[in-house]
Amino acid sequence: METTPYAAVMSDRPLLNRRLAGMGTTIFAEMSALATTTGSINLGQGFPDTDGPREIAQAAADAVLAGRGNQYPPGPGIPELRTAIAEHQQRFYGLAYDPDTEVLVTAGATEAIAASLLALLEPGDEVIAFEPFYDSYAACIAMAGAVRVPLTLRAPSFRPDLDELRALITPRTRLLLLNTPHNPTGTVLTLDELTAVAELAVEHGLLVVTDEVYEHLVFAPSAHRPLASLPGMRERTVTISSAGKTFSFTGWKVGWVTATPELVAAVRTAKQYLTYVSAGPFQYAVAEALRLPDSYFAGFRTDLARKRDLLADGLRTAGFEVYEPQGTYFITTDIAPFGEKDAYAFCRALPERCGVVAIPNSVFYDDKEAGATQVRFTFCKQDHVLEEAVLRLGALR
Ligand SMILES: *Cc1c(COP(=O)(O)O)cnc(C)c1O
User: Fold this and answer.
1) Which end of the chain is more exposed for a tag (fewer CB within 10 A), N or C?
2) Class of domain 23-51+295-394
3) CATH of domain 54-290
């Protein structure tokens, strides 16, 4: 048997630990790489192909050149940004948070999710989360040694079954991990659904972590309500958001947590040993972004709603079954009308077939049946890019 000099110094034990086994490369990296090698239009990974407001980019450049934030900023985030986050929660939702004790700035929502789960979970704790899952949830729950318990959102409506949620709660359930507006399905929880979730959380003494990074990407008549604004929830909810999606600067990685002083202190403890601090100058720019006038947020939404309609109509014409999202910048489709049975195989072949990249939702489900034929497309791209993609997808007919 052949051994390399490298293998010789290692044991038979797999290098990747058991908690992360099978988590390989994220589907977004895999599909974005495929888009590059095949020269395809990338409607897979959710990042805009135009940057956010020019004056906000200028604010970041000014901060760098003025030497603001170029050295380690304060661990909880710069005071200007913490204040702007607190003002944002008050302005949009009437929620009052103390910028000094109830706000924590993180390296994107991704770190906020990781730090929250690593701080709040013991090995063996159960975490209930909607599936299809955002992929970092499964990884972070695993890194915390906890157990994920999926509540499956099923086509065509993708509403949570609240009786099923009740039935999933056990004495080991520690935490509900919510995502509304929900990536990838575009489901925005209604007030009735939020109320039911809140009542269950209170009845069973559960913590809730809510990922609300798409809070401003919601289409009328749907509206976003933070779970923390419901009775009994302010004290048990860790609310997470980020500048990436709202302001079209996904590379800046400025996120935040709002919660009680006790919860923020717990999350900060984990956060300080993950990244310590991040993105100093961008924190100044995001503080300005959060104070943009209402017209920015309304204009962004109107623009996205138009793109959603453009892509939805095009996908329907191309032969997909289209599930209209209430929020986010994703559309989930079904490929069953083409006689296709495997979303992953379909997405692997799609660049060769018509020069477009999409994401198979099937990889975000534990229940492989439920998502087997679902494929996600993003519409956060320029109109001419969406129009060209739709034209190309017409070849599937
Ligand atoms: C994009 C996204 C994130 C990550 O946000 P960052 O601020 O880029 O870390 C978290 N949750 C969901 C549901 C997302 O779609």
Assistant:
1) N
2) alpha beta
3) 3.40.640.10
> Is there a common fold for 23-51+295-394 and 54-290?
no
How far apart are the CA of 317 and the centre of ligand 1, in A? 30
Residue pair 28/359 in contact by the 8 Å Cβ criterion: yes
Cα 333 to ligand 1 centre (Å): 21
Atom of ligand 1 nearest to the CA of 179: 13
Domain ranges of the chain: 23-51+295-394, 54-290
Ligand 1 shell residues, CB under 6 Å: 108-110, 134, 179, 183, 211, 213, 242, 244, 250, 253, 255
Say if residues 148 and 170 touch (Cβ distance below 8 Å).
Answer: no
Tens digit of pLDDT for each residue in 111-123?
999 999 999 999 9
Tell me the pTM. Answer: 0.95
At 58, phi and psi to the nearest 5? -60, -40
pLDDT band at 13 (very low <50, low <70, confident <90, very high): confident
